[in-house]
């Protein structure tokens, strides 16, 4: 919550810019295409495994290492 209170101007400016871009037809198309790319299954899968690897590396147990390895095998990574 502290981060939001310290950066509220930047957050509000970013939201206003995104909404403003939605009113211009050409940029609206680019905005929607960018959102579709970010919501693709391949991108979300890569994001999940990247975050999972960082989490597993930060822990001291080996059980989560084995679980992640099995999960990667089942997803074909």
Compile the SSE list and pairings.
Blueprint: H1 2-6, H2 8-23, H3 25-38, H4 41-58, H5 63-75
Helix pairs in contact: 2-3, 4-5
How would you sum up this structure, described in words?
This protein has 77 residues and is mainly alpha-helical. It has 2 domains: 1-38; 40-77. 86% of the residues lie in helices and 0% in strands. The protein contains 5 helices and no strands. The chain has helices at 2-6, 8-23, 25-38, 41-58, 63-75. The longest helix is centred in the middle third of the chain and has 18 residues, at 41-58. The protein is flat and about 50 Å long. The model has no long low-confidence stretch (mean pLDDT 85).
Task: Spell out the key features of this protein.
flat; 86% helix; mainly alpha; 77 residues; 2 domains
The whole-angstrom Rg is 19 Å
N-to-C order of helices and strands = HHHHH
Mean pLDDT: 85
- The tally of domains stands at 2
CA(first)-CA(last) distance: 36 Å
Strand content: under 5%
Report the strand count. Answer: 0
Low-confidence stretches: none
* Range of helix content: over 70%
Helix-strand category: mainly alpha
Overall 3D shape: flat
The main sheet comes to: none
What is the tally of helical segments?
A: 5
């Amino acid at each position: 919550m502290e981060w939001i209170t310290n950066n509220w101007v930047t957050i509000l400016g970013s939201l206003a810019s995104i909404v403003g871009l939605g009113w211009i037809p050409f940029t609206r198309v680019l905005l929607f295409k960018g959102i579709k790319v970010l919501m693709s299954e391949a991108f979300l899968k890569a994001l999940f495994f990247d975050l999972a690897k960082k989490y597993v590396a930060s822990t001291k147990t080996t059980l989560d290492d084995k679980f992640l390895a099995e999960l990667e095998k089942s997803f074909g990574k």
